[in-house]
UniProtKB/TrEMBL annotation:
<keyword id="KW-0443">Lipid metabolism</keyword>
<dbReference type="InterPro" id="IPR029045">
    <property type="entry name" value="ClpP/crotonase-like_dom_sf"/>
</dbReference>
<keyword id="KW-0276">Fatty acid metabolism</keyword>
<comment type="similarity">
    <text>Belongs to the enoyl-CoA hydratase/isomerase family.</text>
</comment>
<dbReference type="GO" id="GO:0006635">
    <property type="term" value="P:fatty acid beta-oxidation"/>
</dbReference>
<dbReference type="InterPro" id="IPR001753">
    <property type="entry name" value="Enoyl-CoA_hydra/iso"/>
</dbReference>
<protein>
    <submittedName>
        <fullName>Enoyl-CoA hydratase/carnithine racemase</fullName>
    </submittedName>
</protein>
<dbReference type="InterPro" id="IPR014748">
    <property type="entry name" value="Enoyl-CoA_hydra_C"/>
</dbReference>
<comment type="pathway">
    <text>Lipid metabolism; fatty acid beta-oxidation.</text>
</comment>
<dbReference type="GO" id="GO:0016853">
    <property type="term" value="F:isomerase activity"/>
</dbReference>
<dbReference type="Pfam" id="PF00378">
    <property type="entry name" value="ECH_1"/>
</dbReference>
<keyword id="KW-0413">Isomerase</keyword>
<dbReference type="InterPro" id="IPR045002">
    <property type="entry name" value="Ech1-like"/>
</dbReference>
Length: 263
């Protein structure tokens, strides 16, 4: 059965988890499908922004319990340590592919985002959540640690004491608390509508500048203890944008008070 759908229209790719009857829980087929969906967009020059969502009552309830039982019989070293997707294994690629994409990713979350579901959402650039949405770093409930890229993503979003508390307890928390902790960007009555509205706004900006901005932000996050490197990268990126066709079209559109049109 299909686990993920990808639709591209007006330069926006809508990626939807389509296992709504199972709260979009992550079984092996779902993991493969999510990673493949993200990777299929990597070289799509026509896509300027991605909206990631889950059908049904919940965004993603985390790992499918039945799948967990099946994986428990495998050698964990052979299952987890090989780098099958660049710097990641499959489990890590499922959230990290959204951070690796060259275009921004906006995630709409409702119902629950537990365990792997939360880590998938954290891979997005921006997260809208419905009021009352429940989150959890759930892994400690099963006697394991977060292992789907969460430890590469969380330190950029919230404080160390928050990460430790949520990891040690596996306690659920709601959208309002997630917003306070920086794990949600905004609470919206209709998070998908909010995500699509932001996507339309971003899609109207210079495609080359948006991609350059995402790459530059990522570089700054990865080199926060080396400001000299960040400053130099900032200058290099700017030099590559100035005077080029996309920037010249932005200038012309602003002067003529019209929407920019990019080839």
């Amino acid at each position: 059965m299909a686990r993920v759908s990808v639709e591209v229209e007006n330069h926006i790719a809508r990626v939807t988890l389509t296992r709504g009857d199972k709260m979009n829980a992550l079984d092996p087929a779902m993991l493969e499908a999510i990673a493949e969906a993200g990777e299929s967009l990597m070289d799509r020059d026509d896509v300027r922004v991605v909206v990631l969502s889950g059908e049904g009552a919940s965004f993603c309830a985390g790992l499918d319990v039945m799948s967990f039982g099946a994986m428990a019989g495998k050698d964990p070293v052979e299952l987890l340590e090989p780098r099958t997707h660049g710097n990641a294994n499959l489990f890590q690629q499922v959230p990290l592919v959204w951070r690796k994409l060259p275009m921004p990713v906006i995630c709409a979350v409702q119902g629950v985002a537990y365990g792997g579901g939360l880590q998938i959402a954290l891979g997005a650039d921006v997260r809208f959540a419905a009021p009352g949405t429940k989150f959890s770093i759930m892994e400690m409930k099963w006697g394991i640690v977060p292992d789907m890229g969460g430890m590469a993503l969380l330190p950029h979003l919230t404080r160390s004491d928050v990460i430790r508390r949520l990891t040690y307890t596996a306690a659920p928390f709601e959208a309002a608390q997630a917003l306070e902790w920086g794990l949600v960007s905004e609470i919206a009555e209709d998070p998908l509508a909010a995500a699509l509205a932001l996507a339309e706004e971003i899609a109207g900006k210079s495609p080359s500048a948006i991609r350059a901005a995402k790459a530059l932000i990522g570089f700054a996050e990865d080199n926060m203890h080396d400001p000299d490197a960040v400053l130099l990268e900032e200058s290099k990126v700017q030099a590559q944008l100035m005077g080029k066709p996309h920037q010249m079209e932005v200038i012309a559109a602003n002067l003529q008070k019209r929407p920019a049109k990019f080839s």
